[in-house]
Design goal:
Length: 287
C-alpha cells in the first residue's frame, strides 16, 4: 500500500534516530550522542558547531542513500509490522469463543498443509510467495468474518426478539385506544417507532449472521478442496491457478463485507497482515 512505501526522507530520519547495540549499555543512539558532544564543545570553540553540522549532513546523506541501510530499515519495519499483527491476531482470537478459535486454527493448519504439499516455497519467503499470499487473504477474510460473527451473536444475546415483538403488539393495541391528537398517543407512537427500528436491526443482524456462516462454510470447503487437490498434484502452477479461481469466486464476499462495513468496524480500516499462515507453515515443516 502507498502508506507502506518509504521515501528518501524516511531513511534520513531513520539514520538520525538509529540506535546501535553496545555491550553492557544496550541500544544507544550514537549519532545523537556524538552530535550532543559537538554541540557542547561548540561552546568552547564555535568551530565545532560548523564541524558538527557538516559531519552530520555528510553522515545522513551517506547512510540514507546506502542500499544496505535501506534494506535494513525495510526489514526492521516489516519485523515491527509482523509483531504488531501477531498482537492483533492474538487479541482477535482471544475475543472469539472456543469453538471459533478452534475453527480458525483448523483452517490455518489446512492452509499450511496445502502449501506444504505443493512443494517448497521459493527462498522460503512465505510472505512473498503468491500462493501463500492468496491463502493469506482467505485466512484474513475468515478471521474477520469470525470476529464479526461473535459481535453479532453478543448483540443478539442481549435482546429478545420475542419480547420486542410482544411489546410492539402491545404498543400497537394501546395506540389504537388512544386519541390520535393526544400527547399520550404521540409518546406511544414514538416508543413504537423506536421498538420497530430495534426489531428491524435484529432481523438484519440475523440475516447477516446467516450470510456470515454461509461464507465461513464456503471458505472452509474451498481450502479443504485445495488440500485434497494438492495431494493429487503438487504442481505449484496448478495450485496458483486454483487459488486465483477461489479468490475470484470470493469477490462477492469481499464486496458484501465492504458494503456492510458497520458489521466489521475497525477491521475494515486496516490492510491485510504480512502473513497469517507463516507460523502454521513452519510448524508443519518441522513435523
Amino acid at each position: 500500500m502507498a502508506k507502506d512505501l518509504l521515501g528518501y526522507w524516511d531513511y534520513v530520519k531513520a539514520a538520525f534516530h538509529w540506535k546501535v547495540d553496545i555491550p553492557w549499555l544496550g541500544k544507544m543512539p550514537l549519532n545523537k550522542v556524538m552530535l550532543a558532544g559537538l554541540v557542547i564543545l561548540g561552546f568552547i570553540n564555535p568551530g565545532f558547531w560548523l564541524l558538527g553540522a557538516a559531519a552530520e549532513a555528510g553522515f545522513l546523506l551517506l547512510v540514507a542513500g546506502n542500499d544496505r541501510f535501506q534494506n535494513l530499515v525495510k526489514a526492521t519495519r516489516l519485523q515491527a509490522s509482523a509483531e504488531n499483527w501477531a498482537e492483533r491476531q492474538a487479541a482477535m482470537l482471544t475475543a472469539l469463543d472456543g469453538r471459533s478459535q478452534e475453527r480458525y486454527r483448523r483452517l490455518l493448519e489446512t492452509g499450511a498443509a496445502v502449501l506444504h504439499s505443493s512443494g517448497p516455497l521459493a527462498g522460503k519467503d512465505t510472505a512473498g510467495d503468491l500462493r501463500a499470499g492468496s491463502l493469506n487473504q482467505l485466512h484474513w477474510m475468515f478471521l474477520k468474518l469470525l470476529v464479526s460473527q461473535g459481535r453479532i451473536r453478543d448483540i443478539l444475546a442481549q435482546t429478545s426478539k420475542q419480547d420486542l415483538e410482544r411489546e410492539i403488539d402491545d404498543l400497537t393495541q394501546r395506540l389504537a385506544r388512544e386519541d390520535p391528537a393526544s400527547a399520550v398517543a404521540r409518546s406511544v407512537q414514538g416508543t413504537l417507532d423506536i421498538q420497530k427500528r430495534r426489531l428491524g436491526n435484529i432481523l438484519q443482524a440475523e440475516s447477516s449472521l446467516q450470510v456470515i456462516e454461509a461464507e465461513l462454510d464456503r471458505i472452509e470447503k474451498h481450502v479443504t478442496l485445495l488440500r485434497e487437490e494438492a495431494l493429487v498434484t503438487s504442481d505449484p502452477a496448478q495450485l496458483s491457478d486454483r487459488l486465483d479461481g477461489v479468490m475470484e469466486s470470493l469477490q462477492g464476499t469481499s464486496k458484501w463485507m465492504a458494503e456492510n462495513n458497520e458489521l466489521f468496524g475497525s477491521l475494515e480500516e486496516v490492510g491485510m497482515p504480512p502473513t497469517l499462515i507463516d507460523r502454521a507453515l513452519r510448524d508443519k515443516e518441522q513435523e
